[in-house]
Specification:
The complex is a heterodimer of chains A (436) and B (554). Chain A is α/β, with parallel strands linked by helices. Chain A has eleven helices and 16 strands. An eight-stranded parallel β-sheet of chain A has the order 2-1-4-10-9-6-7-8, sandwiched between helices. A six-stranded mixed β-sheet of chain A has the order 11-12-13-14-15-16, covered by helices on one side. Chain B has four domains: 123 residues, ATPase, nucleotide binding domain (Nucleotidyltransferase, domain 5, 2-Layer Sandwich), CATH 3.30.420.40; 111 residues, Rossmann fold (3-Layer(aba) Sandwich); 189 residues, ATPase, nucleotide binding domain (Nucleotidyltransferase, domain 5); 83 residues, no CATH class. Chain B is an alpha/beta fold. The chains are: A alpha/beta (436), B alpha/beta (554). The complex binds zinc ion (ZN) (2 copies).
């Protein structure tokens, strides 16, 4: 019987009875052909590949990570809890030593979900990777974690959640936001004052092919990862960079995805987007599974693969080479944020967020304490077309005493006012997550 | 009258029965060198006082194919495979004549690349040179499109005595399982055919003109004519015979655990709402997973002859067996020796048992009674542990819909049914360990033969229809036709039932109990508009017995 090179966990949850809408890309059919391909290949029989049933994420798992307005139940369905629970199960399998690596092949996706949640944006309600990471930091002795988001769309949700966190390195490789939803992910987006350079964006031009992606991995992602020294690496494994994807414009291949995964060697990969459900997903997912199981993927190829047809233009190659300098500079020598006040002061930021799927408009005023000892206490006022003014306060993981005291002070002050429809407190030091 | 014969590795059991009960039964040690003579003797003996022409149905369970594989008495098979991209097919090489021919079919059954005709011709002429006479043709996704397997088959016509086409073995996906199943099917074909010929001849000689069926590992039977084309389905039918025996002897309607405690092992099976669970995929032999369906069954090394040892003051039992128990002349104490001390059995020479157990007891710093009780306790504990693990695996099996995730039914056994020598003796301990009532059926000594006698014909199919490409296919029945554009899942279910019932009738089996196991209909979308439906219906006749034996429970 065929054997894996290393033990690998597969949390496969295709949610065959869930769709955003009947003909929406995020529909029942999405992983059907992937399942066919994996079954026909005999993946579930490979010695060393173990299939796990997802956990159900609990309300606490979500409240540890997000401010859900007005509450968790209003913005999630069972499908979201299972998908996030699938990511948690994958992490547990690795951290408990059941397997060396794990792939949460689950839907619905999550990487467009931000810290505050009022509904669905970019097909996402809650952020599967972030919920998994916060579960890990709560239950296991892991501090520094890196996320490499290789979905074609900028992982703006994950970026928002970790914008201020110096212990979480977030790297997003995506099609340039000037040409694709959600429009963000510019190379100058580098993280907040307490975490400069811990958010890294690598926007690639349309029609980037295997060469360009792998160049970005080798010359940008890997040196940064090596320097950061994460104790756990997560890959947001969106598959919409594929040349056949109907909603994007890139030229990445299934084998390219397998090589990319093999080079990053994530502890856990979590499926994100990818909507070429017949022509790409069966092959990309197979490639990723084989790479994560330490098996030969060199015979994986799309039926219509034609290397010449998707070879990248010379100017694309040149552009990416030039980009490398900026990206490395951003990490190793990030320019300071000129607007940032002194330590002990709050830095304010106004944001407007549009939830495309649900048509919701949100306005935020966020404040973070500039702090040299921790990620800084965080407070966000949020109002949207579906929720009145609400408030979220977070005392971060490893908060210093000052930030801890300040967080409770803000919370207590807010409670005595009659200004907010909902107030939520994430208190990571006391592991207390409350809503009122 | 129904005749059942179970030629097992150790014993051959036979039973003749009718609606009123068991007419006669027979048990003898199997002559492993000559299964045919064991079987013929059993049939002759058990039918000697009846009118043989009045026997209507004979079901046979035989280890012939299993032994051929275990003892490597396999004929050399010319295997010709073709696969599109994925895991390289060389990883599934089996036997000494494994040919890979370029060609490719995708997961929708679309032909991506035709078979390389020249390389196919070379493989065929190479096989002729090597004087190969049996073949297996297997292509990836042949259950979506059997065209290339049929092409390979055609290229071998006139050369092969027998060809296995992968898609006829099972409707399910898994290229590696399809290869292994097809290989074994061809490799045992000739030895099985000779056996079937002899059985038919010998029954004729005895004046028995009954329908002859062969037992399968899924607890069903197949008519002997069909079994000649799928002989691999006759492997590992032994445990199924015992499980069917329990079904015919007892009224089981709830979630249950079935234990068959034998000489060297205990077989454990789980029933959900009174029906035995079937393995989701198929059984493995020689470490290779196949498409051969089987009842879910787990075996541990705890039996009457299991060795008792003492280490660090702790008594353990099995999984080793070192000859017979001391009570019947062995030289190391076994579980039945302990049972002789606790008084739960009186088997052979009890004094010899005592001598053996005392020695063990001394080593563990216990009294003989204490050590014997500890041995029984340990044995029951191991059975409890293994059954628990099996249940956990079943209850934790992955599911693929939110509905199943939320509404998933957990199996919670409410009763244990126990067969085998130590069954009665272990009744109380088992009841205490599991915390649920225990039933021990009477007649369990030949329950396996009763189960074999009463098994009904089973079969499973999958109908696959794609209304956008207009294809409807039932691979293992060889059906391929046009799917109308307005084809619905309801119509597909009706068609699947009819195909299956018709097929089983044509084999001379009963078409009762056809059930749809799984049925899905996915809207397929091209761009942002609907483009037909992907419809899949799994249909089966599940294992069961043609009638119940009454008064079998105490
Ligand atoms: Zn995407
Ligand atoms: Zn601080």
């Amino acid at each position: 019987m065929i054997k894996a090179g290393n033990r690998m966990g597969l949390v496969f949850f295709p949610a065959f009875d869930w769709a955003i809408e009947p003909t929406h890309p995020e529909r029942e059919e999405r992983l059907l052909y992937t399942q066919d391909q994996l079954r026909e290949e005999g993946i579930f029989d490979v010695e060393g590949i173990i299939e796990f049933k997802p956990d159900m994420a609990s309300e606490e798992d979500i409240m540890r990570t997000h401010f859900c307005f007005p509450d968790v139940k209003s913005v999630t369905t069972e499908s979201h809890l299972i998908s996030a629970g699938g990511a948690i199960r994958a992490a547990r399998a690795v951290l408990d030593g059941e397997v060396v690596r794990a792939f949460a092949l689950v839907r619905p996706p999550g990487h467009h979900s931000m810290k505050c949640v009022h509904g669905n944006r970019g097909f996402c309600n809650i952020n599967n990777e972030a919920i998994m990471i916060e579960y890990i930091r709560e239950h296991y002795p892991r501090k520094k974690i890196a996320i490499v988001d290789t979905d074609c769309h900028h992982g703006d949700g994950t970026q928002d959640i970790y914008w201020h966190d110096p212990d979480i390195l977030f790297i997003s490789i995506h099609q340039d936001g000037r040409t694709l939803y959600p429009g963000s992910g510019h190379v100058t987006e580098l993280g907040g004052p307490n975490a400069r350079g811990k958010t890294i964006n690598i926007p690639l031009p349309p029609e980037t092919s295997d060469d360009g992606f792998l160049y970005a991995i080798d010359k940008m992602v890997l040196p940064i990862l090596e320097h950061f020294g994460p104790e756990f690496v997560v890959n947001s494994a969106g598959q919409d960079n594929h040349y056949s994807d109907p909603i994007t414009n890139m030229n990445f291949s299934a084998r390219g995805y397998a090589i990319l995964n093999d080079r990053i060697k994530p502890d856990v990969a979590v499926l994100e987007g990818g909507y070429s459900i017949q022509g790409a997903l069966p092959y990309v997912n197979l490639g990723i599974v084989l790479a994560m199981a330490g098996m030969d993927y060199s015979y994986v190829m799309e039926p219509d693969f034609d290397a010449d047809a998707i070879r990248q233009e010379k100017d694309v190659t040149e552009y990416i080479k030039r980009l490398a300098d900026t990206v490395l500079q951003n990490y190793f020598n990030p320019p300071p944020d000129g607007q940032a006040p002194d330590p002990g002061e709050f830095m304010m930021r106004k944001k407007r967020i549009y939830y495309d799927t649900d048509g919701i408009q949100e306005s935020q005023l966020e404040a973070v304490m500039v702090c040299e000892r921790c990620a800084g206490v965080y407070a966000v006022q949020s109002v949207s077309s579906v929720n009145e003014l609400s408030y979220g306060i977070e005392i971060p993981v490893g908060a210093c005493d000052t930030c801890y005291d300040e967080g409770l002070k803000i919370y207590n002050a807010a409670r005595s006012e009659n200004k907010f429809a909902t107030i939520q407190l994430i208190n990571r030091r006391d592991r207390s997550y409350v809503r009122m | 009258m129904y005749l059942g014969v179970d030629v097992g590795g150790t014993h051959t059991d036979a039973v003749l029965l009718d609606e009123k009960g068991v007419i006669s039964s027979y048990k003898a040690v199997t002559d492993r060198g000559n299964l045919l003579s064991s079987m013929s003797a059993a049939i002759e003996e058990v039918t000697k006082n009846v009118k043989r022409s009045e026997i209507g149905n004979i079901n046979l369970s035989t280890t012939l194919s299993t032994n051929a594989i275990v003892e490597n008495k396999l004929e050399e098979v010319g295997i010709i495979v073709s696969s599109g991209p994925g895991i390289h097919p060389k990883n599934y090489s089996i036997g000494s004549h494994f040919n890979i021919i370029p060609g490719s079919i995708d997961h929708r059954g679309k032909i991506i690349a035709g078979l390389d005709e020249k390389l196919l011709r070379d493989a065929v002429s190479g096989s002729v040179q090597k004087k190969l006479r049996v073949f297996a043709a297997v292509t990836k996704f042949s259950t979506r499109n059997p065209g290339q397997e049929n092409e390979i088959g055609d290229s071998l016509s006139g050369i092969a005595d027998f060809i296995t086409l992968g898609h006829r073995m099972s409707p399910r996906l898994s290229f590696p399982r399809r290869i292994a199943t097809s290989y074994y099917n061809s490799a045992v074909w000739r030895i099985y055919r000779d056996f079937a010929d002899s059985i038919e001849k010998s029954l004729k000689g005895l004046g028995i003109g009954a329908r002859i069926n062969i037992l399968k590992a899924d607890g069903g039977t197949m008519p002997i004519a069909l079994s000649r084309t799928i002989p691999v389905e006759s492997i590992l039918s032994g445990p199924a015979a015992s499980i069917l025996g329990i079904i015919s002897l007892c009224d089981i309607s709830e979630d249950s655990i079935i234990l068959d405690i034998g000489g060297t092992t205990t077989d454990i099976a789980i029933f959900a709402s009174g029906s035995p669970l079937i393995e989701r995929d198929g059984i493995a032999f020689a470490g290779l997973p196949t498409h051969v369906r089987a009842l879910k069954n787990s075996s541990i090394g705890i039996g009457g002859d299991s060795l008792i040892t003492a280490a660090d003051g702790k008594i353990t039992v099995g999984p080793e067996r070192r000859g017979p128990a001391m009570a019947v002349g062995g030289d190391r104490p076994a579980l039945v020796d302990a049972m002789n001390i606790t008084g739960s059995s009186a088997y052979g020479n009890v004094e010899r048992s005592r001598a053996g157990i005392e020695k063990i007891a001394e080593a563990a710093g216990l009294t003989a009674e204490g050590a014997a009780a500890a041995a029984e306790e340990y044995a029951v504990g191991r059975i409890r542990e293994e059954a628990g693990q099996m249940l956990r695996r079943i209850n934790e099996k992955p599911v693929y819909t939110i509905h199943e995730m939320i509404e998933g039914i957990e199996i919670k056994p409410a009763r244990i049914f126990v067969m085998g020598g130590p069954a009665e003796a272990f009744r109380d301990r088992l009841a205490a360990a599991f915390g649920i009532p225990v039933t021990v059926p009477e007649n369990y000594g030949v329950a396996n033969a009763i189960g074999a006698a009463l098994a009904k014909t089973t079969f499973d199919i999958e109908l696959f229809a794609d209304t956008s490409s207009g294809v409807l296919i039932v691979p293992n029945l060889g059906i391929k036709k046009q799917a109308p554009g307005d084809y619905t899942v309801e119509k597909a279910e009706e068609d699947a039932r009819n195909y299956l019932a018709g097929h089983v009738r044509s084999l001379g089996g009963e078409d009762s109990g056809v059930e749809v196991v799984e049925s899905t209909s996915f809207r397929m979308v091209q761009g942002f508009s609907s483009a037909g439906r992907d419809i899949r219906v799994k249909c089966q006749i599940k294992p069961g017995v043609v009638m119940k034996m009454h008064g079998g429970v105490k």
